[in-house]
Design brief:
This protein has 258 residues and is of the alpha/beta class. It has two domains: 168 residues, 3 Solenoid (UDP N-Acetylglucosamine Acyltransferase, domain 1); 67 residues, no CATH class. The protein has a six-stranded mixed beta sheet with strand order 3-6-9-12-14-15. A hairpin with a 4-residue loop joins strand 14 and strand 15. It is elongated.
Length: 258
């Protein structure tokens, strides 16, 4: 039991930079309290003490604002961040190293008996306010964006966003590495072009970075050819882009008429 408790605490340190020490996690993390109470209610449920299991589960809901049905199956190192408003249904199954944020619902879409709730495989992350509804599987390592509504199976490693949930096709690692290198070269924040943040502006910046990468390659080739011909044209460095210039422009753009 103590080994499992230690494992739970370590999982918090791995996924929450705000955690400072074990005592703070033990006393001030309602997500952990909800999981520990669920383990007790789950034992009672499997021992066929159904009413008592529901009573313990209801106490956990009252104490933490997190509702986990005692029949739900939960894996190791499950982490609930913030947690208020989370609902996990009776036939939900959660793998190891899964993370849920506040307001998540793992719900059903039918009143029939049997499997009604989703299965989250190992390493799944579900963002704040997301709704995962139905008896399907969210594959290992998948991510569900904040406020998404997912009603269909999600492949392993995919990212789902929107209402209804749609899968974002990720670029391969080589393309992502090139974009990051170009972004760092010209002073953009690489986080702004991540496919995990499916903003239309971010996608447009990503395409611009791809274009700039190609232009940069051609310019280097041209400069190399001119140098071979003895021309000093490319001897000068390009002017640097200063962060303060972009901050000034951003500040002006943020001003709106009252």
């Amino acid at each position: 039991m103590f080994e499992r408790l230690r494992e739970d605490i370590q999982s918090v340190f791995h996924r929450d930079p705000a955690a400072r020490n074990a005592f703070e996690v033990l006393t001030c993390y309602p997500g952990m309290h909800a999981i520990w109470i669920h383990r007790l209610s789950g034992l009672l449920w499997r021992a066929d003490w159904k009413w008592l299991a529901r009573l313990v589960s209801n106490f956990g809901r009252w104490l933490t604002g997190i509702e986990i049905h005692p029949g739900a199956k939960v894996g190791r190192r499950f982490f609930i961040d913030h947690g208020m408003g989370i609902v996990i249904g009776e036939t939900a199954e959660i793998g190891d190293d899964v993370t849920l944020y506040q307001g998540v619902t793992l719900g059903g879409t039918t009143w029939n008996k049997g499997k009604r709730h989703p299965t989250l495989e190992d390493g799944v992350v579900v963002g704040a306010g997301a709704k995962v509804l139905g008896p399907f599987t969210v594959g290992a390592g998948a991510k569900v964006g904040s406020n998404a509504v997912v009603t269909k199976a999600v492949p392993a490693g995919a990212t789902v966003v929107g209402i209804p949930g749609r899968i974002i096709i990720k670029h391969d690692d080589e393309v992502q590495a090139k974009r990051k290198a170009m972004a760092e070269k010209i002073g953009f924040d690489a986080y702004g072009v991540s496919e995990d943040m499916p903003d239309p502006v971010a996608r447009a910046i990503g395409q611009l970075l791809d274009h700039l990468q190609a232009v940069d390659g051609k310019l280097e080739g041209m400069c190399g050819a001119l140098k071979d011909l003895g021309s000093p044209y490319c001897a000068k460095d390009l002017p640097q882009l200063r962060e303060e210039d972009f901050a000034c422009v951003q500040g002006k753009d943020d001003v709106r008429p009252g």
